[in-house]
Amino acid sequence: MSTEQTKIDALAAALHETFGEAPEVAVVLGSGWKERAAGLLDEAQRVDCADLPGWPSPRVAGHGAELTLGQLAGRRTLLCGGRIHSYEGYPAADLVRGVRALAQWGTGSLLLLNAAGSLREDLPPGSLVALRDHINFGIPSPLRGDQTPEGKVEFVDLVDLYEPTWREALRQQCPDVEAGVYAGLPGPNYETPAEITMLARLGADLVGMSTIPEAIAARAVGVPVLALSMVTNLGAGLSGSRPSHGEVLDTAAAHGGRAAEVLSAAVSAAPRR
């Protein structure tokens, strides 16, 4: 057994010991989403990430370092207060250890949230977009180096990675939520105007620095995934301002009410076990 699998086993056991039965839906909150989710859970039970062996504590502003389990939209739901990123220097295995442990614990579905830049002027700040696909520009794959117990590399299919039936069920409840393609770059620098132009021409609607590793890891272990982006800025060169993390957090705060409603609807629409 690999050292990483030993860490996953220990973390899954700690989650079970702390919370008991696994959630129907686990939600990873991205930049600015923590405040939107505050108070949504009923019968909440909370634990700090630092108290769970092997779960790295998020450090980026706008991310929380706690896990909270409770009832949301009638579903047993775990809110992960934030995430770590490859640009912080973490290896890919660290980025997805939580997802793998959640799957091993028995979690039913995974909802990934992020803040993203828009590559389209008709998707202004405040828009909410359900991902239908992604383009990965250099965020390391969490499957690199993975092998089956027989020592073979497993090649994972990513067609319909972001569960179409879940996305459409959400859009039935929230018609204002568009579907889009997310371009993932490693960061932490923002994109140049030329890069924004290139990404748009390649068919991307959004750009960000997260989400993709977790989605791939979930697909590899058979957990359905939905990802939601809150547009917090226009890409470089599309507006008169320069991108900043402060702008991301300010925009998220200004549009928090609708984001919380869509989050609840997404949990409600998650596949039933």
Strand content: 15-25%
Q: Which architecture per CATH?
A: 3-Layer(aba) Sandwich
Strand order of the largest sheet: 5-8-7-6-9
Which of globular, elongated, flat, extended, rod-shaped describes the shape? globular
Q: Write down the overall mean pLDDT.
A: 92
User: Total number of helical segments?
Assistant: 8
Q: What letter string, H or E per element, gives the SSE order?
A: HEHEEEHEEHEHEHEHH
Low-confidence spans: none
CATH class equals Alpha Beta
The structure class reads alpha/beta
The CATH homologous superfamily is called: Nucleoside phosphorylase domain
Q: Any idea what the radius of gyration is? A: 18 Å
Query: What can be said about the biggest beta sheet?
Result: 5 strands, mixed, barrel
Overall tally of domains = 1
Provide a descriptive summary of the structure in words.
Helix 1 (3-19) crosses helix 3. With 273 residues, this protein is α/β, with parallel strands linked by helices. The radius of gyration is 18 Å and the shape is globular. The longest helix has 17 residues, at 3-19. The mean pLDDT is 92. It has one domain (3-269): Nucleoside phosphorylase domain (Rossmann fold, 3-Layer(aba) Sandwich). The two termini are 29 Å apart. The protein contains eight helices and nine strands.
